[in-house]
Amino acid sequence: MEVRALCIRLVLMLLVAHAQQSYPQTSVSDADVRIVPSRLQLFEYESVSFTCRGFNLSAGWSVRNIKEVIPTCLTSVTCTLNYAFVSDSGEYWCEGAGGERSSTVNITVTGGSVILESPVLPVMEGEAVTLRCRNRATSSNLTADFYKDGLFIGSSSTGKMTIASVSKFDGGLYTCSISGAGESPASRLTVRGGSVILDGPALPVTEGDAVTLRCRNQGTPSELQAEFYKDGLLIRSSSTGEMTIDPVSKSDEGLYKCSVSGVGESAQSPLTVTVRISKNNDSVKQGEDPDAQDTDSTASREGIVLHHHYSILLWVVIAVVLVLQLLVIGLLHWKKQLVLLEVQLNDPNKDQHSVVKQDKKKRYKEGKEDKKRKGSFI
Q1: What pLDDT, in 10s, does the model give residues 204-237?
Q2: Are 148 and 174 contacting, i.e. CB atoms less than 8 angstroms apart?
Q3: Where on the phi/psi map is residue 225: left (φ > 0), alpha (ψ -120 to 50), or beta?
Q4: For the CA atoms of the chain, what is the radius of gyration?
Q5: Which residues contact 236 (CB under 8 A, 6 or more apart)?
Q6: Separation of alpha carbons 37 and 49, rounded Å
Q7: For residue 58, how far is the Cα from the chain centroid?
């Protein structure tokens, strides 16, 4: 029995090892690789763009949700989901060819009339944060009520609420409402601690451009002595707290951070560099169309929208036809009532139905006499 149990255990260990080799997973922290959407909430039929930061773009990457890979996010640095539907709501993330996976973002598409615009990325303590309540029907400022974790926190006649110096206590789920229009979905505001911040490009930069990294301390706006690191290695010190790479190249890609003596160091921030493509570049192979999937996806969504509009138009036409038929029936009934009323006015003592019956009998009698005359003539 012991030998049999040992054999079973060895077989299980081999199966687990094989599964781990067959399905490698690379764990990547949020500071290393992340997805940056243009917005977290949007109205139905609007579009949202995604950028995958920190990936090796030349190796290939994609944006996906739990159901599918987004077709438009396979051929360009920044990709767009056009004509989003309520069913497109959910979590999205980036996946690299080597198994890297970014943190997820929660996109909400609403068929309602109100959305809340809030910071897409986590904010640092001490920064100013503005929340804006929007109505689909109008772009003008409207009075809005704001809520945090379900509790009312304030009203604004401009539809905007600003937190001048955000703290950890300000993190949570926020919603807003506009009287007569409705309430927005909820969005989470994430606040990170730390007093040292590295300011750098939020989106990928192009080879040959100049890139400036700035290390700042929330406690003081003055220039400070700062040290800059790339992939954990010290690359430069600066008495002004700034470092410029001019021109930037693919070799400059990596994870950057900075530190201020006696204060601390910033979180890591990825710098992504894309290759500059010449207008006369003939590197695309003949017969390949890198925008075909984007075009097909856009055309498919436009077709769905047109079909929706045509369906509404068809129901409107059917309703108009039914109304016209009811009007015709009503006019005929009204005409009949007028004829009967006229008969009654001409001879009030006569019963209307008897008049009709007498008229029928008279016509029947005249018809029989006419047949007799024709028969006697023959």
Answers
A1: 888 999 999 999 887 666 678 899 999 888 999 9
A2: yes
A3: beta
A4: 37
A5: 227, 228, 243
A6: 6
A7: 27
The answer to whether residue 20 scores a pLDDT higher than 50 is: no
Tell me the C-alpha distance between 148 and 198, whole Å. Answer: 29
* Angstrom distance (rounded) from CA 31 to CA 235: 19
- pLDDT tens digits for 159-200? 999 998 888 889 999 999 999 999 999 999 988 777 788 888
- 344 contact partners, CB below 8 Å, separation of at least 6: 350, 352
Q: What is the rounded distance in angstroms from the CA atom of residue 242 to the CA atom of residue 72?
A: 37
Residue type, 241: G
Q: How is 13-77 classified by DSSP, letter by letter?
A: HHHHHHHHHHS--B---TTTSEEEES-SEEETT--EEEEEESS-GGG-EEEEESS-B-GGGSSSS
Cα–Cα distance between 167 and 236 in angstroms, integer? Answer: 31
C-alpha angle 9/15/17, rounded to 5°? 105
Taking CA atoms, 218 is separated from 70, 165, 169, 195, 360, in Å, by: 39, 10, 17, 5, 104
In single-letter form, the type of residue at position 147 comes to Y
- CB-based burial of residue 303 (10 Å sphere; 0-12 exposed, 13-18 middle, 19+ buried)? exposed
Residues 6+ apart with CB under 8 A from 299: none
Cβ(199)–Cβ(209) below 8 Å:
no
Q: Where are the beta strands (DSSP E) in 86-225?
A: 90-96, 105-110, 114-117, 123-124, 129-135, 144-148, 151-156, 160-163, 172-178, 182-183, 187-189, 191-192, 196-199, 205-206, 211-217
Alpha carbon dihedral 59, 63, 65, 68, in 10-degree steps, equals: -70
Q: How confident is residue 269, by pLDDT bands cut at 50, 70 and 90?
A: confident
Using DSSP's 3-state secondary structure scheme, residue 164 falls into coil
For residue 84, what are the CA distances in angstroms to 119, 140, 292, 358? 20, 24, 19, 73
